[in-house]
Design a protein that fits this description.
This protein is an alpha/beta fold and about 160 residues long. It has helices spanning about 10-20, 110-115, 135-155, and strands at about 45-50, 70-75, 120-125, 125-130, 160. The longest helix is centred in the last third of the chain and has 18 residues, at about 135-155.
Length: about 160
């Protein structure tokens, strides 16, 4: 059993912004509509698509050569699947965790194991990444519809959201 306490991310973010001198807490995005739905079939009949927030793999040096902040897709199969993704430019707790384990933010092998064990139907041939742009409007009006379009074109039945 893991004796290390979990990271209280939202509270830690509030404290971080307050320490920077912001008077108002960060407003987390909300969608009061219906962004989620019950599965139509069992997991054994469900094709899963993975959605992440990391950038394409590479050795960028932000901000001059930073990757574009746009939706992109990558392969989940064989040698085409990336060994890692670029995420050093994102704001995450680099003292409490790391991203050296690709499975922690792009769980291709874990889902492949579930498929091999017959617990899910399969994994889409592509995963998709939505950029971290901190704009509710951009996320709702541009990025979310683009991700949905890609998941539908992959014939996925469900999406696993894995934010960094």
């Amino acid at each position: 059993m893991n004796d290390q306490p979990s990271v209280r991310y939202i509270e830690r973010t509030r404290q971080y912004y307050r320490a920077l001198g912001y008077e108002r807490d960060y407003r987390w995005a909300r969608n009061d509509g219906q962004p989620f739905a019950h599965l139509k079939n069992s997991l054994t009949e469900t094709q899963i698509s993975i959605i992440v927030t990391s950038a394409p793999p590479g050795n960028w040096s932000p901000p001059e050569n930073a990757p574009p902040k746009e939706v992109w897709s990558g392969a989940t199969q064989g040698s085409s699947a990336p060994k890692s993704l670029y995420n050093e430019n994102l704001a995450w707790d680099k003292e409490s965790t790391h991203t050296r384990d690709r499975e922690s933010y792009l769980p291709i092998n874990a889902l492949q194991t579930l498929k091999n064990e017959g617990l899910i139907k399969g994994i889409s041939t592509k995963f998709h990444s939505v950029p971290t742009v901190y704009s509710h409007r951009t996320t709702i009006e541009h990025d979310a519809p683009e991700i949905l379009s890609r998941v539908i074109s992959d014939h996925a039945d469900a999406a696993l959201l894995v934010p960094l």
